[in-house]
Amino acid sequence: MNYRIAPSILSADFARLGEEIRDVVAAGADIIHFDVMDNHYVPNLTIGPMVCEAIRPHTSAPIDVHLMVKPVDALAAMFAKAGADIITFHPEASEHVDRTLELIRDAGCKAGLVFNPATSLSYLDHVMDKIDMILIMSVNPGFGGQSFIPEALNKIRAARERIDAYTARTGREIWLEVDGGVKVDNIREVAAAGADTFVAGSAIYGKPDYKAVIDAMRAELAKAGR
Ligand SMILES: O=C(CO)[C@H](O)[C@H](O)COP(=O)(O)O
């Protein structure tokens, strides 16, 4: 299994964002996870396309933009222009999920749907061909540093079954990302349930030695048995 670790810059020092991004990539991160909150869809406010554009020259690692915004389409287009590689959004925040997925892909990015703890995976039923990543939230969106909701493991297993059936039929890979409360001490269980891409904010940026955390996560992943 090809595992990917995606530090969430939500927990980085925003006053030194470029340096924080270079540091986690030097420490072994595969992807930069970029949380966009609008104080409407979620009760918090973070960063927009201008910040994405500003950090783009600081790394060649993929920038994975998680849109916690409503409406979605205008901002998705702006992030594609600002240098995002992957753009995910919450299906219930879009009036036309299929259209938003197409908009993101037509702009040259990978597209994905995000599922809150209480959102049904049935949104996937008719759009698998237009999805490159599924993101399962293991916390309610809006804040870093929350505890992992154990029921998310069942949803990860269900998403993994859908992906494996789809890949067996089409040969096309879809990434399965998990976000919220992922730490060294639970990443192995999350991987065993079927995830291949792991967002971690406070677990990485909350410690002084990013490499030690990422190495410890990889050591746990090596034992996951998938
Ligand atoms: O999307 C998010 C919150 O909405 C964050 O990416 C997520 O919670 C990661 O933070 P942590 O690893 O500290 O839980």
Automatic annotation (TrEMBL):
Active site: 35, 179
Keyword Magnesium in annotation: no
Bilayer-crossing regions: none
Cofactor binding note: Binds 1 divalent metal cation per subunit.
Enzyme class: isomerase
Cofactor(s) the protein requires to work: Co(2+); a divalent metal cation; Zn(2+); Mn(2+)
Record: residues binding a divalent metal cation: 33, 35, 66, 179
Keyword terms of this UniProt record: Calvin cycle, Carbohydrate metabolism, Cobalt, Isomerase, Manganese, Metal-binding, Zinc
NCBIfam families named among the record's database cross-references: PRK05581.1-4 (NF004076), rpe (TIGR01163)
Family: Belongs to the ribulose-phosphate 3-epimerase family.
Identification of the protein by name: Ribulose-phosphate 3-epimerase
Protein's organism: Crenobacter intestini
Lineage of source species: Bacteria, Pseudomonadati, Pseudomonadota, Betaproteobacteria, Neisseriales
